[in-house]
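The instructor's notes for this session suggest beginning with a concrete chain rather than abstract definitions. Hand out the sequence below and ask the class to guess, before any prediction is shown, which regions might be ordered.
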Amino acid sequence: MSLKKHVLCISLVFTLFLSNYSTSQAHKTAIEIKMIASDLATPWGMALLPDNTMLITQREGILSKLNITSGNVSTMSGLPNNIKVKGQGGLFDVALSPDYIATGWIYFSYSKNIAGRGATTLSRAKLSNEHLQEWQDLITTQSTTSTNVHYGGRISFDHNGHVFLSVGDRGIRENAQNLGNHAGTIIRLNLDGSIPIDNPYTENTKALDEIWSYGHRNPQGLFFNLQTGILWAIEHGPRGGDEINIIEATNNYGWPVISYGKEYGKDIAVGQGTHRDGMKQSIMTYIPSIAPSGLIQYSGKAFPKWKGNLLTGSMKLRHLNKVTLDKSNIAVEETRLLRTVNGRIRNVIEDSNGWLYISTDDGRIIRIRPKD
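After discussion, reveal the predicted structure:
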């Protein structure tokens, strides 16, 4: 596949023409790329509110609200004072509850300071004017270490009243194969933070009840497709070996026993090979790494040729990564888009129009929609 880009810059608005050529036909998509906010800290999570505003979490422990139309940004108060902002830690994701209209609950993840150590934590609160109220920590995961890396922290909801949270291995590799802690897992809870009775390990005294899957390194993207019922995740490998996985209960995704990555500073493989019985293979592996971030499966009408494609940000290679799947959900093609944005893309979300919003580590929020 080839990719041609022609960029017309008018003030803050850019028009990008992407030509994706397959063996059978060529098609073009004209895209308007507009920066709608800048000068934020590190925008980690985004959630669109019904009033045409966007909540933006910034890793530095800041919650902002962006008026998408005017570009006005205001700071929300009421965050807890024990957010551990250090290294990769801080304030992470934000997501509206599936019953937000009725209840007003907004979910957050962050690194909680526990005696100087960080633990990935899932919380919820309600927003009144510009202040968070009724803050509740639903779970402080058993993932505390003295490191400041690999927190995970992405949130997603299914259609049956459950919330999923990704938790990284916290820089201690063997944690990901130990069901006695939450590090290196994806957990599932009821919306109120209680444990679902049908969670897979509730009868296993050697495993924590909240665990849904394990063997993860650092899942930075998590997306439940409400139409298909499939939970997707994308996680960082070491030097190579980023993975896209379909997440299912009790699956072991192999880290650090199997990996396609190499040790940092050494030209030797991580783990004990790339395959082992009882450990799942990914549907796509990136070699070299792209350093992935937020993840969605596109469902909108604005870009009909992208429907069903996975979209994830690349922080290392600075592009929007589009993955085409076949009918068996196996990756068959990868396309690298929006390189002219020239930023570490931290997150991507989709609105009801099918328009996309991406955040970059240098503090920008960018809207992508069809031109005209």
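Then share the key points. The two ends are 26 Å apart (CA to CA). The longest strand covers residues 26-37.
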